[in-house]
Amino acid sequence: MKNLYIMLLFVSGITYCQNISLIKNLDTIYVDFKESATQIKTVLPKDNPGFKRWYVIKFNEKNKDEYLQFYVSEYPSTTRREIGNKSDFRFIKKSYLRKNKKRIISVNFFKKYGVFMSYYEAFEKCKVIYIIDRSEKKNGQIPIYEVSISSSYMMGE
C-alpha cells in the first residue's frame, strides 16, 4: 500500500504541468527529450555554420505524419544576433529539474494537444525554450540547450 501511494505521488508530479493553460503563460519552458523512435536527435559537425543540432518529436495525427522540430543554433533569433547574445547551454542537476517541474513538458503533452495547439497556443507567449537532453547525462548532470522551434503544421485553406 505504501508503494502505491509513492507511485501515485510520483505520477501526479510528472503530469502536473501537462495542462496547456498553465504552460501558455510561462516565459520559459523545458522540453523533456528522451531519444527514441519518435524522438530523434541529430548532431551536426562542429564546423557546420548555422545549426548545431536538431531535436524532432514525431507523431501521427489524423493519418498524417506531424512533427515539432527544435533546433540549436549559435543565435536563437535575429534580434539576439544583433545584440550578440548567444544561445544558452549548461549542465544542471536533478534538483534544478525538481524546482522547475511546473515548466517541464514531455512528449505526452504534445500527444495530448497535437501539433497545432502545442505550437500555436502553448508556445505563443514563451520567450525561451530549453531541451533537456537526457541522452547526454554525465556525472549526474543533465545538459540543457536553448532552442528555437518549428513545426510541420500547415494552416488549412
TrEMBL record:
Q: Which domain of life is it from?
A: Bacteria
Q: What is this protein called?
A: Uncharacterized protein
The organism named in the record is Flavobacterium caseinilyticum
